[in-house]
Amino acid sequence: MVDEGDEVSILAFGSAPSVVEAGWRATVHGTQSFEIVFAADTLDDLVDDPDVGTWIRELAGCERGAVLRYDDVVPYNLAVIDGTANFALVDEHGAPSALIESTDQEIYSWTVSTIDDYRRESDPFDPDALTS
Description:
The protein is of the alpha/beta class. Helices cover 36% and strands 30% of the residues. It has helices at 17-28, 40-47, 50-61, 105-120, and strands at residues 7-12, 33-39, 65-70, 77-81, 84-90, 96-102, 123-124. A seven-stranded mixed β-sheet has the order 6-5-4-1-2-3-7, with helices on both faces. The longest helix is centred in the last third of the chain and has 16 residues, at 105-120. The relative contact order is 0.20.
């Protein structure tokens, strides 16, 4: 879904590198608008990986991309992709176990509002912070 979306906004307490790669590919090498708000611990872990760190840095530096750092607890993984709300469920080990998608207006509005709230409380990630 991330690969094919035109506009993607994500709130993430955890993230599979494949999601970051899909957003990077579709944004840096495509026309997608991609924004992701990470819990600070998750972002710190991801930037330690050479490939994922590069994707995150390039996303943060791209005109159509944004990477934000939230310094408190993020309780869930949410996404809005082209008018569809997504709520990712994980098991007790943090592994993805299900995805709920909805175009219901109340659910969609809540998801957009929730991501907006976290965005306002977050700081932009500095792409230069990963240069060696």
